[in-house]
Amino acid sequence: MPHTISSGNSQSIERQEGDLPEVPDGPAYDVSYQYYSLPTWRFTNILRLIVILDGLLCVILWLCGGDTKYFEDNIVHFQFTQSVFDIAILAIAKTVILIIISAAMEETSFKLLDTPFDSELEKRAVQLHVAIKVVPLACLAFGIVKGALILNALLSVSGYKAMHATYDAACIAFICFSLLELLIALFSGHAMRKLQLLRVLHQFNSTGQELDENGHAIHKNPGLLKLLSLAKGEIPLLLGGLLAMLGSSGSQIVAPLLFGKVVDAANKSIDELNETVLILLGVYVGGALASMVRAYLFVLAGQRMVARLRKKLFGKIVTQDIAFFDVNRTGELCNRLASDTQVLQNAVTVNISMLTRYMLQILGSLVFMFILNPSLTGVLLAVVPVVSLTAVKYGRFVQRKRKEFQDKLADAGTQAEEALSSIRTVRMFSGEKKANDLYGKDIEKSYQVGKQLALAQGTFEGVIGILAYGAITLVLWYGGKLVYEGNLSAGVLTSFLLYTLQVAIAFGLLSSLYGDFMQAVGASVRIFSLLERSPTISSENGKILPNLNGYVEFKNVRFTYPSRPDVEVLKGISFTVKPGEMVALVGPSGGGKSTIVSLIERFYDPDSGTISLDGYDIKSLDALWFRQKIAMVSQEPTLFAFSIQDNIAYGCCATDEEITEAACQANAHEFISQFKDGYKTLVGERGVRLSGGQKQRIAIARALIINPVLLLLDEATSALDAESEHLVQEAIDHAMKHRTVVVIAHRLSTVRNASKVIVIDKGTIAEMGTHDELIQQNGVYKRLILRQLTVGSVDETSRKNLNSGGSGATEVFQEPKGNIQT
Ligand SMILES: Nc1ncnc2c1ncn2[C@@H]1O[C@H](COP(=O)(O)OP(=O)(O)OP(=O)(O)O)[C@@H](O)[C@H]1O
Predict the structure, then answer these.
(1) What are the ABC transmembrane type-1 domain coordinates in residue numbering (predicted)?
(2) Global pTM?
(3) Which of 74, 208, 212, 506 could cross-link 358 (Cys pair, CB 3.0–4.6 Å)?
(4) Do 558 and 663 reside in the same domain of the chain?
(5) How far apart are CA 305 and CA 352, in angstroms?
(6) Which residues are within 8 A (CB) of 167 and not within 5 positions of it... i.e. 6 or more apart?
(7) How far is the CA of 589 from the centre of ligand 1 (A)?
(8) Which of 757, 735, 802, 805 is closest to 818 using CA atoms?
């Protein structure tokens, strides 16, 4: 496979296999292919910029000289000392030639870096280095001769009529620029030798991601093409929209011309006036219809694209690892789905359409203006770059301020979201004032930036207004002068002014588009980084076992949360759970019990060691199948805003009978039947509010319905009322039967019945055995139980019983409320 070695945006040189440039010393990482590029601000680009300015300036100065007749005369009756037509043509030719030579020279020098002894290349490089100096030198000589002859004619030839001042300026500009270009070209050899130092190595891994020098993936701003690739499916709609746009822009371009004709016709006859007005009306109606079709097709394409993008993006987000959700806030992710996609929709469809429309409008208007009056157009062209450069420069500043403002507003939004989503806690602690103060502070910060934004935006509009209206006034004055001198009709001046306004408005709108595109670039970086992110824990293509007994084994498992890389949470955990056993995890808070359960669910993979199910490393099993075989009932289960029936059948497809059966087993059928809509009752904010015990029982039914081989339980510590607790406990006891169970135990009755109790303390197994064995050991477990008894409601006799260490101590834990909250 040939490797592309690109030497800048415009050139690329094919290299053969084995020609890979050497990778700098550093860590070993997977580099699939690599190429070099050059920085933007380098010798050739600076030279190109100068020659383009040279060409533009000479042509503009030539166009600005005098009226149409003067302009025509100096082409048709060309005289060497009376016209700068030759200078304008030479300046354009020089621009084109120097751009071509500089590109070829850079490409040749680049190739020479990798094949330094290629004599053909060396010869070509010498020729190009000579040519890049000869061209400006020849132009300089020409300019000096012409300048000298003009000066001579001015000083000593009688009857010589001086040229228009802008023509003299064109001649002087041509000489100065040629000299400057020659001076720069003298350094071409030195600059090309420096390419070796300047070139930047780009390297990519096998998935096509660019890596930095340390081998880490770089997230780059996607290019316009990549952005457009999002709208690939909408190409027919967009093409239709573009066609319609040609029609609507065409009508806008022709309209001012007809306007002028109406003014002129009004000075001639009523018939001509009627006829011209009718044509103008026809053009306007046609344009409006085309606009309608354009708007419809573009908006439709945008809507289709954004709907597809949102589905794809959500699909990507929802399949990410749990570790991803530890570091990305839900609010931010929802924001990407809602507003980033919207920004992209606008950029890829509406903004692109606007960009094309305004460009067409500007170009078309300029062509018509040039046909109407070249010298008036020249005056306009001289001021347009000043206005547009100011607009772009200042526009960027305003854009930065706007971004800052939006960031501050987003901070305030997060604050509000946090307070409102935890409104019960806020109310419980009378935290309304505190929440209000926090939100108020953030809003105040955004307001301060908002004030600066208002000032920047106001000044921006003022400055651009002064410049734009100044330009229009200048054109008006110059056009008025031409009308006054009889060189222009009032109708043509009217058309011209309307075109000027059209160009000014289009420029203004173009500069506002810049901000939209920048916003889209930001949004697309975030969206593409999500679309291209592959979860490290793959869900599919693993082994599916025909039978599962539920034998779980942890072998020296060590684990650190990716979001907290400096703290090792599990430090070498090993234990087994045999089929049908109930193993209780107990221990002080923060010890790592929930982490063990998360690892069994394969929310995360361990850093080292293995977790196996029936002797198979769970990493080798198909995660989708595997998760169907285990179920988790947590302390505070989350129910979705669906019907009760859909909540119970969330993890599988089940018949109504199966759902009812599961609900019966979970002691939930009775209370569900009491609702007016029974199993169809909606749960959540728009539906019924369920009590903690009811939620738990629905969660148990949800777990039971998939008939899991392995049941994971986090016992509720919240105080359910006695009746509810009894019902929940009964349901749990029922669910545990004939299953392998791992339970984070908070109840003494659970640990007492457990086949094995594992005490987890600071990421290690502190003790392991049955309840009775651990009580005998007089260690962490016993201390936990004693502490519980100290704060619990068990009487003094019971504590003495326990302290005596006798197995009879277990009897005291039959207290229904006696749990071992840790
Ligand atoms: N998603 C996470 N990201 C980073 N650190 C975490 C995460 N979840 C837990 N931890 C940290 O891991 C350690 C163990 O937490 P874990 O929840 O497993 O303990 P636990 O024994 O279940 O505690 P508790 O009984 O209070 O629920 C704690 O220090 C905790 O702060």
Answers:
(1) 239-519
(2) 0.65
(3) 506
(4) no
(5) 14
(6) 61, 62, 65, 74, 83, 84
(7) 8
(8) 802
How far apart CA 480 and CA 490 sit, in angstroms, is 8
Cβ–ligand 1 contact at 565 (below 6 Å): no
Cα–Cα–Cα angle for 688, 692, 693, nearest 5°? 105
CA–CA dist 413, 392 (Å, integer): 31
Amino acid, single-letter form, for residue 6? S
Cα separation of 356 and 269, whole Å? 39
Beta bridge partners of 756: 583
In a domain? residue 397: no
Which residues are registered as beta bridge partners of 712?
632, 742
Q: Are residues 526 and 543 in the same domain?
A: no
What does the block give as tokens for 432? 């309304």
Burial of 369 (0-12, 13-18, 19+ CB in 10 A): buried
Other C-beta atoms closer than 10 Å to the C-beta of 51 total 25
Q: Look at the chain and count its residues.
A: 822
> With the C-alpha atoms ordered 219, 221, 223, 227, is the resulting torsion angle positive or negative?
positive
Examine the fold and report which residue of 196, 218, 240 is the final residue of a domain before the chain moves on: 218
pLDDT of 526 reads 80
**Beta 756-761 vs 33-37: how paired, if at all?**
unpaired
For position 666, which CATH number holds? 3.40.50.300
Distance 590 CA to ligand 1 centre (A): 5
pLDDT in the model for residue 819: 37
Q: Ligand 1: which of 594, 597, 607, 717 to mutate, most ligand atoms within 8 Å of CB?
A: 594
Q: Which residues contact 705 (CB under 8 A, 6 or more apart)?
A: 648, 649, 651, 652, 654, 658, 659, 662
Ligand 1 centroid distance, CA of 434 (Å): 28
DSSP 351: I
Q: Please give the order of strands across the beta sheet that includes 200-204.
A: 33-37, 200-204, 210-211
Give ipTM to 2 decimals.
Answer: 0.97
Q: In the prediction, which pLDDT does 811 show?
A: 32
596 ligand 1 Cβ < 6 A: no
Q: Which domain holds residue 741?
A: 539-629+708-719+733-791
What pLDDT score was predicted for residue 629? 85
Residue 124 in domain: yes
> What's the gap in Å between 593 CA and the centre of ligand 1?
8
pLDDT at 468 (0 to 100): 76
> Alpha-carbon distance 421 to 472, whole Å?
55
Q: Examine the domain organization and report whether 622 and 528 are in the same domain.
A: no
Helices (H), 157-269: 165-185, 188-193, 195-198, 224-229, 235-266
Q: Which tokens sit at 20?
A: 């890979």
> Under a CB-based contact definition with an 8 Å cutoff, are residues 552 and 712 in contact?
no
Q: What whole-number distance in Å separates Cα of residue 697 and Cα of residue 401? A: 53
Strands 608-613 and 710-714: unpaired
Residue 412 one-letter amino acid: A
How far is ligand 1, taken at its centre, from the CA of residue 321, in Å? Answer: 17
Q: Whose CA is nearest to atom 1 of ligand 1?
A: 326
What sections of 532-555 are H helices per DSSP?
none
Cα 755 off chain centre by: 52
CB 326 near ligand 1, within 6 Å: yes
Asked, for residue 456, whether it belongs to a domain, the answer is no
pLDDT at 686: 66
User: CA–CA separation, 438 vs 412, rounded Å?
Assistant: 8
Q: Which residues of the chain have pLDDT under 50?
A: 1-28, 791-822
Q: How many CB atoms lie within 10 A of CB 95?
A: 22
Q: Is 35 helix (H, G, I), strand (E, B) or coil?
A: strand
- Considering only CA atoms, which residue is closest to atom 8 of ligand 1? 595
Residue 327 near ligand 1, beta carbon < 6 Å: no
Q: Taking the CA atoms of the chain, what radius of gyration do you get in angstroms?
A: 39
